[in-house]
Amino acid sequence: MKNQLSKILPAFVALGILSFAAFSLWQSRQTKDKVIMAQPEKLLLTEIWQVKSVDSPTQFTIKKGW
């Protein structure tokens, strides 16, 4: 019994690691909003931007126009 367990255990560990990696990759691609980084001097003053949501103290989602 112990011999069988020592053969199967590495396969289960590898399967767990691969499953976690696949889930993490899938979860990271579920984001619907895209973040655009821009320098303030490159934004034209005549453009209108709308803040859609504040995601964190350093990140927010915006939309061009109303």
Which residues sit in consecutive blocks of at least 5 with pLDDT less than 50? Answer: none
**Topology order in helix (H) and strand (E) letters:** HEE
The neighbouring-strand order within the major sheet is: 1-2
- The counted number of beta strands is 2
Ends distance: 68 Å
The biggest sheet amounts to: 2 strands, antiparallel
- Assess the beta-strand content as a share of residues: 15-25%
Radius of gyration: 23 Å
| Count of separate DSSP helical elements | 1
Number of domains: 1
Shape: rod-shaped
Helical content class: 40-55%
- Average pLDDT confidence is 78
Give structural notes.
This protein has one helix and two strands. It is of the alpha+beta class. It has a two-stranded antiparallel sheet with strand order 1-2. Strand 1 (49-56) and strand 2 (59-64) form a beta hairpin.
Produce a short descriptive summary.
The protein is an alpha+beta fold. It contains one helix and two strands; from the N terminus they run αββ.
List the helices and strands and how they pair.
Elements (H helix, E strand, L loop, with lengths): L1 H27 L20 E8 L2 E6 L2
Antiparallel strand pairs: 1-2
List keywords for this structure.
two-stranded antiparallel sheet; 21% strand; alpha+beta
